[in-house]
Amino acid sequence: MPEEQVSVYDARGRVxxxxxxxxxxxxxxxxxxxxxxxxNAAGQVLLQRRRPDKENGGLxxxxxxxHVGAGEGFDACVVREAGEELFGDGRSPCVRLLGSxxxxxRTRPGPAEVxxxxxxxxxxxxxxxxxxxGGRRTVLYHVALYLGRTRAPxxxxxxxxGELSGLRFFAPTAVDRLLLEGALAPNMGxxxxxxxxxxxxxxxx
Length: 205
Fold this sequence. Notes:
This protein is of the alpha+beta class. Helices cover about 25% and strands about 35% of the residues. The protein has helices at about 20-25, 75-85, 100-105, 170-180, 185-200; strands at about 5-10, 15-20, 30-40, 45-50, 60, 65, 95, 115-130, 135-150, 165-170.
């Protein structure tokens, strides 16, 4: 099957076109990506564990992450990736993207639903990733960051076994411990240090 095509950009965030995933990641050009962090009513953070045969394998990572496909926008990408990684369906109705933080705060998610908003866009983020079997790769990213909330219990999620080896809720102190032990993916460490307060403020009924 042909390799997935992803978007590459110039340094100012303008789309240059699509390239195969491996070509894009090794091009030195910024690649489009989305990262999402989700918290539940108890203030626990939902994290995924990467499969050993994937980059950053065995480490705990953000709730949802993925590359922006060629011709795809950041918002469409995060809805698709969240559906695929959390519910096994890129068109799942269980994922809703709202227009603002205030809208997410006002919204009571359904019992098997995730609601998100776009919290920011980071241009030219230099990410260091562990390769399967050893070694490292550095990739330049334009990353759209999303924060959200859920009332769904762990059993409501159907994570993709082709991508993830685990999906768990963690108390903030447990995420702190994972960070100190080196058990978080490098980009998740960055997200936790910069976004934890804003994320945890979304907790509640």
